[in-house]
Amino acid sequence: MKAEQVPQDKSSLSDKELKELCYAVDDKGNYTTALSSGWEPKSVALNGSIQLIQQRVEEAKKLVLVGKKSPIVYFMEKNKMDLSILASYVSLWKWRVKRHTKPKVFKKLSSKTLQKYADVFEISVEELKNFKG
Amino acid sequence: MQVEFKHQQAAHCENGVASNLLKHQGIEISEPMVFGLGSGLFFVYLPFLKVNFSPAFSYRPMPGWIFKRMAKLLGIKFKRQKFNSPEKAQQTLDKNLTENIPTGLQVGVYGLSYFPEEYRFHFNAHNLVVYGKDDKQYQISDPVMQFPTSLTHKELEKVRFAKGALAPKGHLYYPIYIPEEINWEKAIKKAIKKNCRDMLAPVPIIGVNGMRMVAKNIKKWPKKIGVPKTNHYLGQLIRMQEEIGTGGGGFRFIYAAFLQESAEILKNNKLKELSEEMTQIGDMWRDFAVQIARVYKKRSNQEDVYQYLSDKMLEIADREEAFFKQLKKAV
């Protein structure tokens, strides 16, 4: 890659006025660095995985709405987490977190446990309990 | 309190922190040199490990390995500490700052407020340097950022104690011993040899063999798992190859820069030629990403595009195999 070919496409980086450093060669073939505002093929891949997360959040919302899953699932997806990550944040076994995703079990959770989840999601216990999808 | 610290942007966090911390100690070491000495060029395919709902691919060794290998080869010793208590972790960091020691930290990316939302995933092996503190904020030199930045005390605690895989547990590090003389020639040769061994390893998931295995799977995926999932896997491949930190082309350009620098130090013209070859290989990887992006957007005119992508990747694997065989002979 030549320094003048370092891509300057619009991306989520350029929206925040960030630039990333790339290695490229100058006219004489010597290595130098150049800043890039983004590269379209990369943005395509990144947007693809963002869309996947959005789909999962929407799906979770529906499942909470019809009463198949507890609000924990929605907030877990919203925070880009999976069961393992969430379990380590609330310091509980994964199988226990999995049980808490059942609406019936969720309803019986102690306020202490609910507080743990609320803290991780950075919301109030009320918001967690009253989320209906 | 604030330590005088020169922030320099880097492509990759691990190399960048190492380079910036060592420059602070008076050792002129570039980012590509850190990467090369850490035998950083790699490829690994872990079909059984799912990351982001896709098999794991990586164009570099495990987080931390580049840093450790580089330090070992140069004879530099780092003090490393992990903590169970956030209070203790903060006290130790603050004590370092009062003693004028800029300190490297391992952190989680998810809580880094200065990153764009799209980049904030639960990845816990990011690196940065803290070089100052006031009553509200810590001053941060994050090597992937253009300029120094800052985090509130609370934010810093959160990223230092991020949870999940590779949890940092407040991990901090700083150099405590630097040898009087460094034998660069010897270190470079050793690191290059190791890199050749890794890339040519007789293991099906590693190095050029790993690339061939992915290439073969690309052909099978559409039938086996369907087109949307195949495209998602391919998207993940681009992300690992081109994401912030790679310097583009799956770290190939950084390695080419390292070879060019080494050619000067070792007075070895062959390495200069090989640096040019590696640049071309990097361009092939870039082109591969462009082709995948077209498939991803369903805009490819190619018939049987997956066969085509598979062939492209096999071509790169052949070229890298030939490259590392030559490199092995050159040092």
TrEMBL record, chain A:
Domain of life from the UniProt record: Bacteria
Organism: Mesonia hippocampi
Protein's recorded name: HTH cro/C1-type domain-containing protein
Record domain HTH cro/C1-type: where: 107-128
TrEMBL record, chain B:
A Pfam family per the record: DUF4872
Domain Butirosin biosynthesis protein H N-terminal: 12-143
Annotated protein name in UniProt: Peptidase
All residue ranges annotated as the DUF4872 domain in the record: 154-327
